[in-house]
Amino acid sequence: MEYREFESKVALESAGLDLLEGAFHAGDPSARAIMLTGGSTPFGVYKALSKKGIKADPGVHVYLSDERYVPLETGDSNFGRMSEMLDALDVKHRYAVDSAVPPAIAASRYANDLQHLLDRKIKLPLGILGLGADGHVAALFHAEQIDRAQGHLAVAVNRPDGMVGISLTPEMLCRVERLVFWVCGPSKADAVDAFLHRPTEIPAGLALADARHIEIWYSPQE
Question: pTM here?
């Protein structure tokens, strides 16, 4: 696990922008899938990236680490909110959760999309993740959800805020070659410390025990 500390949220966002610009616009025509996440820091980066005037390489696919079970047009939809960036980058291959069907079916269909990527042996070079103050990752908030996710690529979960979520599972998350956490604010300091030194005490550490490579980018600034 690698750790990078940034003096400000602005500095972290700047590094994040460089990371994503290189991932989307590498001049590499080969097929690859980039995992994105929601959250205030990622959406700041997504907005900046949408204004860069670049186009994604044609082989880029985009999928999400987790999604709220809501229509895309609502403000709570991560995918809906990042559509402006995906449109600006002209990303052709996108995988969204279908909220028009029951949650269990939505999770199954999303898992089928992900399995299609795996069956085609499309590379998974990069995934962006957030870390909750309670140590959760994606929409995996406690050990029971992580245990129940075994044997699946995506599952429907009950979130603490009362909403239903669709989350990738450890099996899918750990297939990504490079997982980069963007974490900001003093409220996340304890979770970051636990992840670095006592990972089995928090859901993120339990879920990603078999991850290939993890980086934590942290700024104490909110």
Answer: 0.96
Q: Which domains does the chain have, with CATH numbers?
A: 2-198+212-219 (3.40.50.1360)
Tell how strand 164-168 and strand 154-158 pair up: antiparallel
CA distance 194 to 187: 13
The answer to whether the beta carbons of residues 207 and 171 sit under 8 Å apart is no
Beta partners for residue 184, in sequence order: 219
Cα distances (Å, whole numbers) of residue 102 to 69, 109, 165, 183: 9, 11, 12, 32
Maximum C-alpha span of the chain: 44
Return the DSSP state at 222: -
CB-facing half-sphere around the CA of 48: CA atoms within 13 A: 17
- pLDDT tens digits, one per residue of 5-64: 999 999 999 999 999 999 999 998 899 999 999 988 999 999 999 999 999 999 999 999
| Distance between CA atoms of residues 25 and 174, nearest Å | 24
Residue 24 CB neighbour total at 10 angstroms: 23
- CA pair distance 115, 119, nearest whole angstrom: 6
pLDDT band at 222 (very low <50, low <70, confident <90, very high): confident
Handedness of CA 5, 190, 35, 180 (dihedral sign): positive
The one-letter code for the residue type at 192 is V
Q: Tokens 């669709």 label which residue?
A: 166
